[in-house]
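Chain A, query sequence.
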Amino acid sequence: MIIWKPDRLRFTLTWYAQRFFMLPLVWLVFRVFNHVKVEGLENLREVEGESFIFAPNHTTAWDGWVGTVWALSQRKNLVNRESYTAVFAAPENVPTRLLRVLVSTLGAIPVDRDQGVDQFALQDTVRLFDEGKTQMVLTVYPEGTRSKNGRLRRKGKPGLGWIQYRTKAPVVPIYHVGGTRMPGIGLKMKIRIGKPLRLDRWQDEPDELMTWRGITGEVMDSLRELENEELGRDPNAQPPRRRFREGRRSKAEERKQAEAKATQRELVASS
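Chain A, predicted structure.
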């Protein structure tokens, strides 16, 4: 007789939901309707069989979650049915109870940004890492919230550092561009996977806010390097979202100018 314990039931339900619902959906969006290029998959070999943390930049509500599932699907030996792939998500982005149940089954862990580190979701996640019953793959946005202009924020939030300090897990930075309008059709997206960061040296520091910020800062520096490489190391280069907005703004200005000229011609003709 099989006795399902709560953790094992959660792991199994999430694996099936991701494997038979999320992954086919991601495949349709990424492979059929759009083109996605992944660089740096070889860097994931360093964390095969380990629990680790994905740290992506954050531009949309879905980016790190779907990007993580896609990256994992490209490395067949990285995770298996015994693994638990999860992502921290703000509950205010999930408006209905039914939708909360669905995204929780898909691996979303609701985290209230106003409650700090004492909330159950964070403590329970650390417990899962510490017990080592399964391979944990956790996605945490170091920026803490979405970027409004597509650029990385100047500073990250200490939450990632707090978790890494307690779990001692390696952190894999991920930088993606071109996904701000996903899901769409005919779009191009690139996912860049950086080298895993081993942050053991921070264990000699006191368990305090400055240490957590230092850990997050090191991850942000790695993400910024990926961003600079993608944008051609030009500090004035524009990320895709800003280019799209400015292109749309310029077209609106052209329409206004054309309308103004047409109005002026009508006035001249009537006079």
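Residues 241-246 have pLDDT under 50 and may be disordered. The chain has two domains: 6-237, 239-271.
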